[in-house]
Design brief:
296 residues, mainly alpha, 0% strand
Length: 296
Amino acid sequence: MRRHTSVLAHIVAVCVVLVWGITFINTKLLLSSGLTPEEIFVMRFAIAYVCIWTISPRQLWCHTWRDELRMLLLGITGGSLYFAAENEALRRTMANNVSFIVCTAPLFTVLMALVLLPGVRATHRLLAGSLTAIAGMAAIIFNGHFVLHLSPRGDMLALTAALSWAAYSLLIRSVSARYSAVFISRKVFAYGLITIVPLFAWRPWQTGIGSVLASPTIVFNILFLSLVASFTCFVLWSWVVKELGALSSSNYIYLNPVATCFASAAVLGEPITPIAVCGLAMVLLGVYLANSSHSR
């Protein structure tokens, strides 16, 4: 039974990350429709938060104040800070830069774990898998056009998002054994919404609810981000981390650009080159090698 659960967790991890790869296109369309990064985040997480109460235990607080503090940090690292940094980076630098830098989060997760977690060791297969996946990811993202335009402020924001997700991956490991995936996700949504509020002092809310409802494009993309990418995928990801561990689950993030590449081809008409196909094969090989190292 345990083996079947582990196999299922790997399948769910792939599905979740592929969905998250598509969200890059959804967010890009919403930004081009005039919404700000903070507005997209609030609408996305607010709808998800309302939905999760339908299946969430009625427990309001964690068992200890330390766990409550961990939930606050999860809401920041996996919510407000991550999405604010990533979306703002998209406004300031090239999408290729953002995609590549943000998707190095698994590598930072490994490095953080080596420093902070006792008993974690970097095996040769883990390192080889990570480096192979990064090389393949670069081939997919740049899709045969290896031109990197530096924009220090935007690139630093993308790096902030990558580090934020790496911290989230390790933090969620510390609470997943004591709380359900639904409870953790509800806390992430709540604290994410609370901690995003100060950013509106810098850039006030601009979009009226009427203009949102009048646009089928905005409504569809917001509902996809909130109901599928947040409500469903955050709950599933919390369960995946509990089953596979922080390092193994984090390695699947390397698959993120695969979905983005194919979604860009389908929605935006961007071509897929032979180099991108080779990159896909390298990513799959890298993820296999990294996960076969059995590092948790």
